[in-house]
Amino acid sequence: MLLLQFSTSHYCRKARLALGYKKINYEVANLTPGLHILKVRPITGLTTVPVLLPTPNNVKSGIGDSTRIFHYLESHFPEPSYTLAAREQNRYAWLLEDWLDESIGTATRFVYYHWRSNEGKSVNPSLSSQLVINIVRRQYGITPAAVELAKKRLENAMEVLSPWKEKPFLVGDSLSVADLAAAALLSPLALIPDYKDNYPWLFQRVAEIHEQCGEALPPGLEK
Ligand SMILES: N[C@@H](CCC(=O)N[C@@H](CS)C(=O)NCC(=O)O)C(=O)O
Question: Which residue, 12, 46, 76, sits at the end of a domain?
Answer without folding.
Answer: 76
